[in-house]
Amino acid sequence: MKKNMIIPLFLFIAVYILSFLIKDTISVDLANKNQAPSLSHLYGTDWLGRDMLLRTLKGIQLSITLGMVTALLSTSLGLLLSILATVNSYMDKMVSWLIDLFLSLPHLVTFILISFVLGGGFKGVVIGLMLTHWPAITRVLRAELLQLQTMPYVQISKQLGKGFWWRARYHFLPHLFPQLMVGFTLIFPHAILHEASITFLGFGLSAEQPAIGIILSESMQYLSSGMWWLAFFPGLTLLMMMLLFQRFTNAFKHHLERDRSYEHYTNG
Amino acid sequence: MAVAIIKKLLRLVILLFAVSLLTFLLVSMSPVDPIRAYIGTDMLLVSPEQREQIEAYWGLDQPLFTQYVQWISSILSGDFGTSLIHRVPVTEVIADRFFSSILLIALAWLMSGMLGVMLGSVAAMKKGSWIDRVIRGYCYLLLSTPGFWLGLLLLMVFSVWLGIFPTGLSAPIGMTTGDITLFDRLYHAILPALTLSIIGVANVCLHTREKLIDVLKTPYILQARANGYEGIYLFRRHGLRNMMLPAISVHFASFGELFGGAIIAEQVFSYPGLGQAVVDAGLQGDIPLFLAIVLISAVFVFVGNWIADILYLVLDPRLRKRGNKS
Predict the structure, then answer these.
(1) Which of A28, A54, A83, A195 is 20 to 30 A from A240 (CA-CA)?
(2) How much of chain B, in percent, has pLDDT values that exceed 90?
(3) Cβ contact (<8 Å) for A224 and B26?
(4) How close A5 gets to chain B, by Cα (Å)?
(5) What's the topology of domain A3-28+42-267?
(6) In this predicted complex, what is the ipTM?
(7) Residue ranges per domain, chain A?
(8) Residue range A157-165: average pLDDT?
C-alpha cells in the first residue's frame, strides 16, 4: 500500500528536482539542427539545434510549479468560500449561485475569457486556473460542512459560546483536511493539462517561456516536414508525468478512505 | 410539466443575464483597445480627433452601464453586432460555423458514448479480471493525455504519414459552397471527432463501470444469480437498464467538457467551427464575436444539463411520481 504511494511520488519529485539542474538558457547549436533522436540527443533537436530533452524538462518544471501554485490557490479559495457558505443561509445561497454560474460555462471558455481580460502571461494563467478550478472542490467541501454543522458536538460547542472562527478552526478544519488533500491532488494534474492547452491555443504563457504548450504549438509548423519527434516526446513526457502523479493520487485516496479499503480484500 | 419548463426557461434567462453582465464587465476591464482591434495596423494614420469621433459613434464615451444596456437591448432584438475580424454580422459568422461544430460534437458525443458504455459494462461485469485492469488503465491513461497532443499524433499518423484523412478545414480546398456534399463534411470531421471522442470515452467508461458495479451489488442481482442467470444474459435482463440512465445523464452533463475539447480539436485540425472562432476572436480582440460565443456556450451547457434532468424524469417512473408529489 505504502509502496504504491511513495514510488510514483518519489519519481515525480525526482524529475522536478532534476530539471532545476539544467541551465536556464539552452544553448543554440545551428550545426546540429533538426536532428532526429539519437544517443547524444535522446529527444532530437529543434530548428535552432536546441536539445529537446532539456527543453521538455524545463517545460515540465514550469508546468509543475504552475500546477502547484494554482492547485494550492484554488483549494484555499474553495475552503474559504465553503466556510463562508456556512455562516448563514444568505451566504450559502450566494456561494451556491456563484458555483452554478462558474459551472455554467465550459472551463476552457471561462479560462480564455479570464486570460483575455488579464492579457495572458503567468499572472493570467494562474488567476484563470484558480478561478476555473475552485467550484468542484467547493461543492464537496460545502456538502461536508453542512453535514458537520448538524453534528452534536459542533452544536454543543456553539451553545458553549465558542465563536464561528473557533469552530471553523478546531472542528471543521481537521475534518476537511483529507478532502482538501484529495482535492489538491485532483486539481493539480488538471491544472497542468489546462495550462498546456491554453498555452497551446495562444492565450497562456508567452512564446519565450519554455512551456510544453509552446513547444507543441511550435512543433505544429514542422509536422508536415516529418519532424515527428518535436511533438511526440514532449507530449509523451508530460503524459508520463501525469500518469505518475495519478498513480500517487489513486493510492493516496485509497489510503485516506480506509473505511472503504476492505473492498480490496473481499473483491480482489 | 408546463410550469416546470417555464421555471427552467426563467432560470436560463437569469443565467444568461448574469453571464452576459459578468463577461461584459470583465471584457470592458481588459487591456484590449476595441478601436485598435478594429483598425489594426492603420492605427498610426488615425488622429486623436478621429479617434474621438469613432468612440462617440460606437458609444464608447458613454458610461459603462449605458453601454451594457445598449448592448443587451440590441442582442434582445437579434442584433449581435458586427464581427471585427470577419467584417460581417456576428450572427452570420456563427450560423456558418455552428453547423460544423455541431456535426463534430455530435459525432464525437455518439462515438464516445457508445464506446464508453460498452467498455465500462465489460469492465464492471469482469471486475477484478485482467480485462477490467486493461480498460481501467486505458481510461486513466486517457485522463492524463493532453487532448491537443493526441490530436497532433493522429494528424501526424493519419494525415501526414498515411495520407488517409485531410490535414484540416471542413471541406476540400477550391470548392464553392454549393459543391460541398455532406460526405465531404463528414470526411473532414472524422479525425477531429475521433480525437474528441477518444478523450471523452474515459469519463463515460469510468462512470458506467462505477454504476454497474453498484447495480451488481443489489439484492435483485443476487437473486438473479441464484436463479442461474449469468454473463451477458444477466447484464441484458437486469444490469443494462438500471445502469443506462445514470450513464446517459453523465454523458449529457459533459457538454461543457465537450465544448472545451472541441475548441482544442478545432484548433489542431484548423477546423472552422465555433471553437476556432472563439480562439481567433480572443486573440485578435474581436469582442462582439467573443461575447456572442460565450453566451452560446452557456446555452449549450445549460441545455445539456437540462436534457440530463429531463431524462431522469422521463425514463425513471419512480422519480416522476416523487416529482409530482412535491
Answers:
(1) A28
(2) 1
(3) no
(4) 16
(5) MetI-like fold (1.10.3720)
(6) 0.79
(7) 3-28+42-267
(8) 86
For the segment A2-26, the average pLDDT, to the nearest whole number, is 77
Distances (CA, A) of B22 to A59, A74, A90, B18, B292: 33, 20, 21, 6, 13
Three-state secondary structure call for residue B23: helix
Copy the grid coordinates of residue B114: 457508445
pLDDT in tens, B124-158: 888 888 999 899 888 888 888 888 888 888 887 87
Domains of chain B: 2-76 (no CATH), 93-325 (1.10.3720.10)
Helices (H), A43-120: 52-85, 89-103, 107-118
Question: Around A201, how many Cα atoms within 13 Å sit in the side-chain half-sphere?
Answer: 36
Q: Which three cell numbers stand for residue A112?
A: 480564455
Is pLDDT of A266 > 80? no
Question: Structure pTM?
Answer: 0.80
Residue in B30, B32, B144 closest to A239 by CB: B144
What gap in Å lies between CA B21 and CA A44, rounded to an integer? Answer: 49
Nearest CB to B128 within list A108, A212, A268:
A268
Calculate mean pLDDT across residues B212-223.
Answer: 86
Q: How far is A199 from chain B (nearest CA, A)?
A: 11
Q: Cβ(A191)–Cβ(A204) under 8 Å?
A: no
Which residues 6+ apart lie within 8 Å of B291 measured at CB?
B20, B23, B24, B27, B71
Q: Which chain B residue has its CA at the smallest distance from A243's CA? A: B144
A25-47 b/e (C-beta count within 10 Å ≥ 16 → b): ebeeeeebebbebeeebebbbbe
Top residue of B21, B152, B254 to mutate, by most chain A CBs within 10 Å, is B152
